Amino acid sequence: MNCVDLFVQQAKRKPNTVALWSPDGTRMTFEELLAMAGRTQRALRDAGVKPGSSVLVVELPGPRLYAIVLAVFAMGATVIAVEPWLPVGEVDRVIRFMRPTLFIGGALGMAWGARVPAVRAISRWKASSRVLSARGAPLSIEDTSPETPALVAFTSGTTGQPKGVVRPQGYLIHQHDIYTRSLGLTHHEGPDLCIFANFVLANLASGRPSLLVSPRWSFKQLRAIDDLPDELQPRTLSCGPAFLAQILRNARLDKLASVHVGGALSDVSLWENAFDKWPDTHFLHVYGSSEAEPVAVLDARKAVAVSRARGFHQVLCVGKPVDAIRSRLEPNSLWVTGPHVCRWYVGNDRENLVHKRVDEHGNVWHDMGDRIEVRDDLWWYAGRASQPAEDFSWEQSVYHELGHSRAFIHRTNPGSVYLVGEGLRQNAERIKQQYRGIDRLICCPIYRDRRHRARIDRRTTLRKGAPWLPG
């Protein structure tokens, strides 16, 4: 079995259905994408790629990228997918470990590759615009084992340096099946507006159109979606909280029937605004990680209601585990195993030793790094395992006081505790009285990036210039 077989079945069943739409207006049907993947595969063979090889790919989302991915998967080779804004250090180590046969990149990818030592060491480079063979050829599909590595992706780096995560052929097939059962992937026939590559691959395996959005999306791109013809209007949306916030401000999406949101903590108010804008739309809250997704799901209206009822500013109820997940709730962390849980990190023995376990039956368990509590038969997020529980409780209380989540607790090496965030000056006296363990308040802007993570240069803040309020 090869995961590309699922796509080929859909291409034969729905040859004229749009598979991919890009922000530049490009549309490609399933039949056209299949033919493009066949031509790409011929060019890859000419460049020395064969079963067991690995190919480094740095390309923006679009038909060209997915034709390359499908061609490599079909050969029984491995795609190393890199976003050029990731920190170079860990990426360089993974590339050295995998020793790719070929580097394929667009203009941005080529510029990025020139500054990464491990990429410069790859003997064969090919511009993505020239990866198509002039000669047509049917896509050839190798029979692979479930353990054959298909994709090496990188974690987002929210808990440290990004790590290379191996997704074998069997993982991709199981993840598609779990998406179908747990998220209702095939309940809607229309297009899916998605920013996550794993959902694009799942849509290709399900015969659903994907509306692609560049990682560097612009407001103009979002507004252009509303001008698409009816058959390309998105029926579903798969995204993170930050993208949902921008969609709320910059697009109508009148045909939207279902929304899946995961990837980060989100404010209750964000969901309530979405409920108001699309009152008849189904919303699903998805909990997972780059190593295991989905882990748990819950109807978002219920997740918001119970979180609001407990006085939380953020949606902390993450629902119940999906049926394919087995879990162990340990005092300070959640461990999970299942067919769509990645087994190891690439070339990182230290992280594998800390975050992976093998039980007596050979099952690999992954440490999610989150504290999870069970209340009323539902899972509740209770902070990162690396964060003191007291700090998480303080932060949640402060969010309630401030009316927003743009703040965090920072502990210094000497043992001082700082609260850093927006709007602290106006609430300073009340916060100082309520949280006597906090030594200082630091007022400064906090912004959230497109993955909806709180971002700030903490060293600069502490050293240079934010107003300090005595504790």
Explained architecture:
The chain is α/β, with parallel strands linked by helices and 471 residues long. It has two domains: 4-375, ANL, N-terminal domain (Rossmann fold, 3-Layer(aba) Sandwich), CATH 3.40.50.12780; 387-470, GMP Synthetase, Chain A, domain 3 (2-Layer Sandwich). The strands form five sheets. An eleven-stranded mixed beta sheet has the order 2-1-10-9-11-12-13-14-15-21-20, sandwiched between helices. Strands 6-5-3-4-7-8 form a six-stranded mixed beta sheet, with helices on both faces. A four-stranded antiparallel beta sheet has the order 16-17-19-18. It is globular. The chain starts with a helix and ends with a strand. 44% of the residues are buried.
Descriptive labels:
alpha/beta; 471 residues; 34% helix; GMP Synthetase, Chain A, domain 3; 6-stranded mixed β-sheet; 11-stranded mixed β-sheet; 27 strands
Write the layout of secondary structure elements.
Elements: H1 4-13, E1 18-21, E2 27-29, H2 30-46, E3 54-58, H3 63-74, E4 78-81, H4 88-98, E5 102-105, H5 107-113, H6 117-120, E6 125-127, E7 149-154, E8 164-168, H7 169-183, E9 192-194, H8 197-206, E10 210-212, H9 219-225, E11 236-239, H10 241-250, E12 258-261, H11 268-277, E13 282-287, E14 296-299, H12 300-309, E15 317-321, E16 326-330, E17 333-337, H13 349-355, E18 356-358, E19 364-367, E20 370-375, E21 378-384, H14 389-402, E22 407-411, E23 417-421, H15 428-434, E24 440-443, E25 447-448, E26 454-455, H16 458-464, E27 468-470
Helix pairs in contact: 1-2, 2-3, 7-8, 10-11, 11-12
